Amino acid sequence: KAGVTQTPRYLIKTRGQQVTLSCSPISGHRSVSWYQQTPGQGLQFLFEYFSETQRNKGNFPGRFSGRQFSNSRSEMNVSTLELGDSALYLCASSLVGTGGSYEQYFGPGTRLTVT
Amino acid sequence: GQNIDQPTEMTATEGAIVQINCTYQTSGFNGLFWYQQHAGEAPTFLSYNVLDGLEEKGRFSSFLSRSKGYSYLLLKELQMKDSASYLCAATGTYKYIFGTGTRLKVLA
Predict the structure, then answer these.
(1) Which chain B residues touch A107 with a CB distance below 8 Å?
(2) Chain-chain contact of B91 with A99 (C-beta, under 8 angstroms)
(3) Tens digit of pLDDT for each residue in B64-88?
(4) How far apart are the CA of A22 and the nearest CA of chain B, in angstroms?
């Protein structure tokens, strides 16, 4: 069974631009969560989607948004990029959804650098 | 509020035993996960505790006390490849709250 895939793996953008990241979950997994990881803050929860609905959202500004498609693939978008958005963005899929007993499987991440 | 605390860094010697503690505070708590993350890689699942007590999985064991909001990960017979960050995560309704991770260095 293929793992979680994320594209692109690396991205360099300029302040003020916007970016879209993509995540394909493990086949059969309906929950997709997004995290931002930085050295000082660790893994910060962005949002979780389940069956195309956002079920939970972390404490990030409205510049961060996401969506999930009917095939469970998910995208997240960051508009008006700031230097502080430079981070590793991880996507994780789960069989049922966060909060339950099902572990999350993480993708390799997208390394975003904002200059 | 919601909060998870774990030590930032620990050092241990190959062959030794190390215990990584995690305290948490979150509403609607379901269970506690531990993940391992090697540098430059994605986190991978180690263990899950939902009931009080110790869960053993080979060289790794995890303990949970729901009443104390406390968990620990115990690594025995440390190997060099165990050098990694260890993340604890408390789960609640539709959410995962991760700690900042404990960076473990295993010395020869």
Answers:
(1) 42
(2) yes
(3) 999 999 999 999 999 999 999 999 9
(4) 16
Please tell me the distance from the alpha carbon of residue B86 to that of residue B76, in angstroms, as a whole number: 14
- Partners of residue A48 in chain B, C-beta under 8 Å: 94-95
What SS3 class is residue B92? strand
- The residue ranges of DSSP E strands in B1-108, in sequence order, are 3-5, 9-13, 18-25, 31-37, 44-49, 53-57, 60-65, 70-75, 84-92, 95-98, 102-107
User: Which secondary-structure segment (H or E) carries A99?
Assistant: none
Identify the segments of chain A with pLDDT beneath 70: 1, 97-101
Q: Which residues of chain A lie closer than 8 angstroms to B48, CB-CB?
A: 101, 103
Query: Buried b / exposed e across A71-82, counting CB within 10 Å, b at 16+?
Result: ebbbbbebeebe
Which pLDDT tens digit goes with each residue over B1-50? Answer: 678 999 999 999 999 999 999 999 988 888 999 999 999 899 999 999 99
The beta-carbon neighbor of B100 closest among A42, A90, A107 is A42
Q: Verify whether the Cβ–Cβ distance B42 to A109 is below 8 Å.
A: yes
Tokens 């975003």 identify what position?
A: A112
Q: Label residues A31-68 b or e (16+ Cβ within 10 Å = b).
A: bbbbbbbeeeebbbbbbbbbeeeebbebebeeebbbeb
Q: Choose, out of A26, A36, A94, A104, the residue to mutate when testing the contact with B (most B CBs < 10 Å).
A: A104
Instruction: Tell me if A104 and B96 make a contact (CB, 8 A cut-off).
Output: yes
